[in-house]
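Lab notebook page, bench 4
Experiment: in silico fold of construct C2
Operator: M.H.
Input chain length: 198 residues
Purpose: comparison with the prior construct
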Amino acid sequence: MKLKNICVYCGSSSGKNSAYVESAKQLADVLVERNIGLVYGGAQIGVMGAVANRMLEQGGRVIGVIPEGLLLKEVAHQGLTELHVTKSMHERKALMAEHSEGFIALPGGIGTFEELFEVWTWAQLGFHHKPCGLLNIAGYYDQLIAFLDHAANEGFVKPPHRELLMVEQDPAKILDRMALYTPPTTSPLAVKLDLAAT
């Protein structure tokens, strides 16, 4: 799979562990090294700002997408390759997905969780055929990963759907896996019918 741009979901806060920001910078370094652009939420603060600034420092391409309502709250980054301002969060997420060949979540809060789960759900339903990944930095997502495995063991998440979410600790490894990603062959209709029967 040719990865032109990767969408990165992450926090507008930096978190308490410096590893979160450092890992964002490491991801940016690998993206630039592989000539992969960044698509993200458009802010210049927190983990979001760290990954964007590192990309720009290294000469990388950065596309920011931010809704009007968050222009001031998240302090929109004014030095990006492109900055798109949308009317709504729905439009924001759709535009980010449209510009990306894959999705990675770094540490973040409720918004990051929601964005990741949405694109993962879309992949499960066959609405897109792009890889979804989780960078588990400093064990941040350990308990979430354990819960997802529990949901699969309890029969609420089918094993093939659980496997659609790649989990790694190293940015280079997750991008390697994404480059080799082959979408499942199950059709959206078949998945819908299967879900309806459960």
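Observations: The CA atoms of residues 3 and 149 lie 28 Å apart. The longest helix spans residues 18-33.
Next step: discuss at group meeting.
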